[in-house]
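COMPLEX REQUEST
Ligand: magnesium ion
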Amino acid sequence: MSYGGGELLSDISFKLQPGSFHFLTGPSGAGKTTFLKLCYGALMPTAGHVRLFGADVRAMTRDDVAMMRRRVGVVHQDVQFLDHLPLADNVALPLTVSGRDLLSENSNLNELLNWVGLRSRADARPPELSGGERQRAALARAVIMSPDIVLADEPTGNIDWEMSQRLLQLLVELNRMGKTIMIATHDLNLIRAAKSQVQARVLRISNRRLQLAGADL
Amino acid sequence: MKLDPTRIVEFLTGDAQADRIVPPTGFTARLTQFSAGAMAFLCVFALALSLATGRLAARWGDELARSSTIRISAPAEQVAAQTEAALRLLETTPGVKSARALTADEQADLLAPWFGPDLPLDTLPIPQLIEVIEAGDGYDAAGLRLRLSAEVPGAVLDDHTRWRRPLVKAASRLRMLGWLSIGLIGVTMAAMITLAAQAALSANAQVIAVLRLVGACDSYIAQAFMRRFTLRALSGAAIGTVLGMAVVLLLPAAQEQGGFLTGLGFRSWHWLLPLFIPLAGGAVAFLATRAAARKTLGELT
Ligand SMILES: Nc1ncnc2c1ncn2[C@@H]1O[C@H](COP(=O)(O)OP(=O)(O)OP(=O)(O)O)[C@@H](O)[C@H]1O
Ligand SMILES: [Mg+2]
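STATUS: Structure written out below.
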């Protein structure tokens, strides 16, 4: 993968096992975000192949990509919302765009908002939220469709230890339900905390390669 | 997309949730609506003009094809002989298809509107009329006049085709101009909606990115924009059309002799035609927004 300059990621051969729990680390600018974007079809590889759920991304139509994204929950590093809609509607947005009945999912939505501690902020517009609140909201939005895979890019970047523990808890629980989780993070404490609860693997991007880090963390 | 009524209704009523994904924009919405209304208003007049000039051209064209007349005013005892002479002369005039002396009854019918049906025509010195039907390019009026004055001293050629022909031509041109205007109005409307839709699409780049991220199909996103612009154009054009029709209704009524100026309006079922303007406006907006949305969305990842 390259953005036109030199190669950013190369010689990577990796298969995300269903039900696995991965952390993705590496220095800033190493290409963590880029790697995740390749994983949900926001970027096309400049060389080599990326297969998502068995389908080559290059052969996917735009509608195929849309369908694929309903099975992949994504939390961006810079989370974005529809700023004119209240938080609850934003969290429910994946249901809306996929034509699900919102009423029947209402209890689900409330439970989820409780989980991320945003029940009381349900009517707030996204620009009124703090950075941490936005990240929690983004996580809630990423998991509301009960996706097969959750990709989170620095989901705990703006939140305190306690809240990040709760988010991790949510992700661990999702993993126990069989979901595949991949979290890009710098936070070694978070990784350690996770390792005590699930069998988490740590991938490290360095020298343009993706390496499985040892157990030495 | 096929023209399926249920799908059109479905599209227009839409679902409230999908509607909200595009942020409301009060001012530009009203601008779009206003422009659609203004275009529809103009379109009503262009349509009225086209139809009125069409009617005019048809009527004049009819009369043109019909004939010219020769009037024979002579002392009573000479009328029959001069009529004979004129008819003989016409038979040998190139460009005349046929010529025929009107019967007394026909002449009475022609005069009735002016003098009433009870006038004792047979006692009055009424000139004899000869109807001349032209063939092809018509005859040489000046030549015919010369020959008539030499052989039938009481004959006067009433040649209305000569001044009507250019009028019919002008009316046809005017009608074409009317249709051209309608076409231009449509194209302008399409251009305007395209610009507005494109502006809305780029102003909402973040909205589109978020929607794509959470798995919205292009068609879903496009529909939200298309619905909005179609409804704006439809409602704006409806208002403009109603106002335009009201103004046409208030124009002075057509008069028998008024010709073109007072004839600008709709006749009978033609009043239904302007009702298609809002529909056409909506369709134009639908297509223009769809094209703009497809273009914009196609350029995204
Ligand atoms: N759209 C782009 N065009 C060109 N270069 C880009 C683009 N996006 C990222 N890059 C470059 O690619 C490199 C990797 O970026 P990436 O965002 O993947 O890093 P990262 O590992 O996520 O860093 P961080 O930990 O700071 O988030 C950086 O040097 C960045 O400047
Ligand atoms: Mg990053």
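REMARKS: The radius of gyration of chain A is 17 Å. Chain A has a mean pLDDT of 86.
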